[in-house]
Write a structure and sequence with these properties.
Elements lengths: L2 H18 L39 H13 L1 H23 L3 E12 L14 E15 L4 H67 L5 H35 L26 H8 L1 H22 L4 E13 L10 E10 L7 H67 L5 H35 L23
Length: 482
C-alpha cells in the first residue's frame, strides 16, 4: 500500500475505533445536598449524646437490659455478620488485582481415530494423551479498573459497618422505648389500683348513707359500677404490661416469659437541647448518613469500573509445562512447552452493551445521591420533630400539673360535701372521673417526655461518631464527571 493511502487510513482507523466503543456523554448528573447550607439549623451549643447515653437515665435495670440486648439480639448479630461478608468481598476484589498462578493436569487414556490426522502407530489404537502445565497471569491496571472495583468494595464494607452501628442505635432506642412503656403501664396500673381503693371507700360511704336513709339504691349501683370499671381497667393494664415485657424479652434475645416479673420506673426527666452546627456535625454522627455516603462512593466507583470497560485490557501471561503422547515420553526434555507474552483485549463493536452498562451504573449513582439527600432531610426532620415534641411536652406538663392539682382539690371537696350531706353523688362521680383522667395524663406526659428523649438521642446519632472525615461531603462526586 502506498504511503499516501497509509496516511489516509491511519486517522480513519482511529476514528473508527473511537466511534465503535465510546463512553462520551454518559455520567452521573445529580448533586448531593450541601451540608454547609444546613448549618443554619443550629441551636444553642450542648454536648452530643454520649456513647452510652442510656446510662444518663440513672436506671441500672435499663442499662443491664441494654447490655443483654447488644450481646444477644439476632438482628444485631446479622448486621455484624454482614460486615464480615463485606470485608471478605474486599479481600476477594483485592486478590483479583494480584498475579494469579494455576496448575492443571490432564492425563487421558484415549483411543485415536484411524481416519483422522493422527499418524500410525497411534491411529486406531489406545494411548495416553498427557498435559501438565503451570500458568501465570497478571492483569495490568493501566486505566484504574481494579482500583475502582476495590474502592467500591471498600465503600460497601464501610457502609455495612455504619449499618451495624445504625442497627445498634436502633436496638438501644427500642429497648429504652419499651422500658419506659413498661414503666408507664406499671404506673398506670398503680394509679388504677389506687383509684379502685378510693372507689371502694366511696362505695362503703354510700352504703352507710343508705343505712342512714340518706341515699338510695341508685347511688349504690353507681358506686358499684365505678369499682367494676376499675377492675376492667386493671385487667387491660395487666395485658399491656405483659406485652411490654414480651417485647423487651424479644429485644434482649430471651423467651417471652423470661421477664415475667420485670419492673421498671419512670426516670427523672432530662433536657436534651439540640447541639450546634447541626448541618455539618450530623453528617458524622448519624450512622445511616455515613452508610449512605459510602454507598454513593461505591456507586461512583462502579461508574469508573464501567467506564474502563471501553479501554484496552492488557494481561501478562506465561506458562510452562509438559505435553506428550504416551506416559513414557512425558518426562523427556522434548515434552517441555513454555511461553510468555502480553494479551490484549480491546472492545470494538459491542452492540451498545458497554454504553448501556455505563448508563445503568450512572443512574444507580444518581439514585444513591438522591438516597443521600433523602436520608439527610429525614435526619434533620427527625431531630426537629423531637425537639419540638420536647418543647411542647414541657409546656404541657406545666399546665397539666396545675390541672391535676385543681382536680385533686375538687375531688376532695366534693367528697367532703357529700359526706356532710351538702352535695350529691353526681358531683363525686364527676370529680372522680376528672381526677383519674388527670392522673393518667400526668403519667402519659412523663412517659412521652422520656420516649421523646430517647427518640432525640437516636436522631442525634445515639452516641455514634464516624472515624472518617465527613466535612467534605462526597468529595469524589466531581471526579466522576466526564
Amino acid at each position: 500500500m502506498s504511503r499516501p493511502r497509509l496516511a489516509l487510513w491511519a486517522p480513519a482507523s482511529t476514528l473508527v475505533l473511537v466511534a465503535c466503543a465510546n463512553p462520551a456523554g454518559i455520567a452521573p448528573s445529580h448533586q448531593p445536598t450541601a451540608a454547609a447550607a444546613l448549618a443554619q439549623t443550629s441551636i444553642a451549643a450542648t454536648p452530643w449524646p454520649a456513647e452510652q447515653w442510656w446510662q444518663g437515665f440513672g436506671d441500672s435495670g435499663l442499662s443491664a437490659l441494654v447490655e443483654q440486648a447488644l450481646a444477644r439480639q439476632p438482628s444485631l448479630q446479622q448486621a455484624l455478620l454482614r460486615v464480615q461478608a463485606a470485608q471478605a468481598a474486599v479481600d476477594a476484589t483485592g486478590a483479583a488485582a494480584k498475579p494469579q498462578v494455576q496448575f492443571s493436569a490432564d492425563l487421558t487414556d484415549q483411543h485415536f481415530t484411524a481416519k483422522g490426522m493422527v499418524p500410525p502407530p497411534l491411529a486406531g489404537h489406545m494411548s495416553w494423551n498427557n498435559d501438565l502445565q503451570v500458568g501465570a497471569s497478571w492483569e495490568l491496571d493501566l486505566f484504574g479498573r481494579q482500583r475502582a472495583a476495590l474502592d467500591s468494595a471498600i465503600g460497601l464494607q464501610r457502609a455495612a459497618e455504619a449499618d451495624a452501628q445504625a442497627a445498634r442505635v436502633l436496638l438501644v432506642s427500642q429497648v429504652a422505648t419499651h422500658w419506659f412503656g413498661l414503666a408507664r403501664q406499671l404506673e398506670l396500673q398503680q394509679l388504677a389500683q389506687q383509684s379502685m381503693q378510693q372507689r371502694e371507700q366511696v362505695l362503703n360511704l354510700v352504703r352507710q348513707r343508705i343505712d342512714a336513709g340518706l341515699d338510695s339504691a341508685v347511688e349504690r349501683h353507681q358506686a358499684e359500677g365505678l369499682v367494676a370499671q376499675s377492675r376492667v381497667e386493671l385487667e387491660s393494664l395487666a395485658e399491656a404490661v405483659a406485652r411490654e415485657r414480651h417485647a423487651l424479652a424479644e429485644l434482649s434475645g430471651q423467651a417471652p416469659q423470661a421477664l415475667a416479673t420485670l419492673t421498671a420506673r419512670l426516670a427523672p426527666l432530662k433536657s436534651r437541647p439540640l447541639p450546634a452546627a447541626l448541618g455539618v456535625d450530623l453528617l458524622g454522627r448519624r450512622a445511616d448518613l455515613v452508610a449512605q455516603r459510602w454507598r454513593v462512593e461505591a456507586a461512583l466507583r462502579d461508574v469508573d469500573v464501567a467506564r474502563t470497560q471501553f479501554y484496552p485490557n492488557i494481561n501478562l501471561v506465561a506458562f510452562f509445562g509438559l505435553s506428550s503422547l504416551g506416559l513414557d515420553n512425558l518426562l523427556n526434555a522434548g515434552a517441555r512447552n513454555f511461553g510468555a507474552g502480553p494479551a490484549l483485549r480491546l472492545p470494538l463493536f459491542e452492540g451498545g452493551r458497554l454504553r448501556a452498562q455505563l448508563a445503568a451504573r450512572s443512574a444507580e449513582a444518581d439514585a444513591a445521591v438522591e438516597g443521600w439527600n433523602a436520608t439527610l432531610l429525614r435526619a434533620l426532620r427527625e431531630v426537629a420533630d423531637e425537639v419540638a415534641s420536647l418543647q411542647a411536652l414541657d409546656r404541657q406538663q406545666q399546665a397539666q400539673a396545675q390541672a391535676n392539682g385543681a382536680a385533686e382539690s375538687a375531688f376532695a371537696l366534693a367528697l367532703q360535701r357529700y359526706q356532710a350531706g351538702l352535695g350529691n353523688f353526681l358531683s363525686v362521680l364527676a370529680a372522680d372521673g376528672t381526677v383519674l383522667a388527670q392522673r393518667r395524663a400526668g403519667s402519659d406526659l412523663k412517659a412521652r417526655h422520656l420516649t421523646a428523649e430517647v427518640a432525640l438521642a437516636r436522631a442525634l446519632g445515639g452516641g455514634y461518631h464516624a472515624t472518617t472525615q465527613t466535612s467534605a461531603v462526597l468529595p469524589s462526586l466531581a471526579a466522576a464527571r466526564p
